[in-house]
Amino acid sequence: MTFMIRNRTDEDIQEFLTWTFDGIYSFYDNSIQQEKIDGFIESVHDKRAFTVVNAADEVVGNCEFFNVGDEGEEILAVGVQMKPSLTGKGNGAGFIHAIVEQGRSMLGYDHLELAVADFNERAINVYEKEGFQKKAEFQNEIRGKNYRFIIMFKDW
Length: 156
What we know:
By secondary structure, the chain is an alpha+beta fold. It has one domain (3-155): 3-Layer(aba) Sandwich (Aminopeptidase), CATH 3.40.630. It has four helices and seven strands. It is globular, with a radius of gyration of 15 Å.
């Protein structure tokens, strides 16, 4: 499957907000936290927020690049999400590769980071195959429960 990133539209965001995931992955559901809903709605004007489409221009995911550096220091990180019906079917490597390389072409980074919930072994495996390495860990409380996240990075 071919993947491309493009600017988001309001229609894309409305689709993202319908996405629900099975089992432990329901953690990533888009409509269960007002902060996440508001973030999607506001992101339509963000030049670092993209929709991922296939060759037929069908929405298959989303990604956002954002700064995680301290004041005065820019360190780009990426957040990604694949359409639920496509997850767990061998699409991850092509999906991540397209986002990382097209994002690099557009934004010009030589270092990229991401954070992934430690239970998401499928994603961790895909990120490692794409050349990301584990850097650190942190805990974060989300919807009243503590989760452990792994920070991963890739350099060029």
